């Protein structure tokens, strides 16, 4: 499950206040059995990402429709996916040096493996924007993997579903992005 988080770090972050859900999509970095993230202080959910409040997270890996036509055996249509659901408690870290280093570390992680951009501590915009960003750390209390990958099929059908998941995700993202920009 850690590999899903590390490969697909954009989390759906869900908090609840007065029975009202607050949902934000944020990249989170797994580090020392915790998740580290940052949020714009003007986001209403920022107030809920501190004081050991509870938070629910969803990390989404690849997913796609699986047609029975890809199988060598008789099957029905299905949807395959990889998800990780987490629950934890969150606390803010108000130390400016920690925030700055965390932003540098996150950028380094997300720029891998080519590191075409390196965020330097002396970057002129970094210090200007620190007061608008809040860092938080999530202690994970519960993990749940949701891996539906045609595991109940024959080996050749499992492989066909794996190849379809790869093909569909490469094709769908290319076609989709062509339509929106």
Q: What features would you describe in this structure?
A:
The chain is an alpha+beta fold. The chain has a single domain (2-180), classed as Electron Transport, Fmn-binding Protein, Chain A (Pnp Oxidase, Chain A, Roll). The chain is 30% helix and 40% strand. It contains four helices and seven strands. The protein has a seven-stranded antiparallel β-sheet with strand order 2-1-5-6-7-4-3. A hairpin with a 2-residue loop joins strand 1 and strand 2. The chain starts with a helix and ends with a helix. The model has no long low-confidence stretch (mean pLDDT 95). It comes from Winogradskyella epiphytica. This is PaiB family negative transcriptional regulator.
Largest sheet: 7 strands, antiparallel
Strand content: 35-45%
Query: Fraction of residues in helices?
Result: 25-40%
Structural class: alpha+beta
**What number is the mean pLDDT?**
95
Unreliable segments (pLDDT under 50, ≥5 consecutive)? none
Q: In whole angstroms, how far apart are the ends?
A: 32 Å
What top-tier CATH class fits best?
A: Mainly Beta
Q: State the CATH superfamily name.
A: Electron Transport, Fmn-binding Protein, Chain A
**What is the count of β-strands?**
7
Give the CA-based shape.
globular
**CA-atom Rg in angstroms:** 19 Å
What is the count of DSSP helices, taking H or I runs of 4+ residues? 4
H/E element sequence: HEEEEEEHHEH
Largest sheet, spatial ordering of strands: 2-1-5-6-7-4-3
Query: What count of domains describes the coordinates?
Result: 1
Question: What name does CATH use for the topology?
Answer: Pnp Oxidase, Chain A
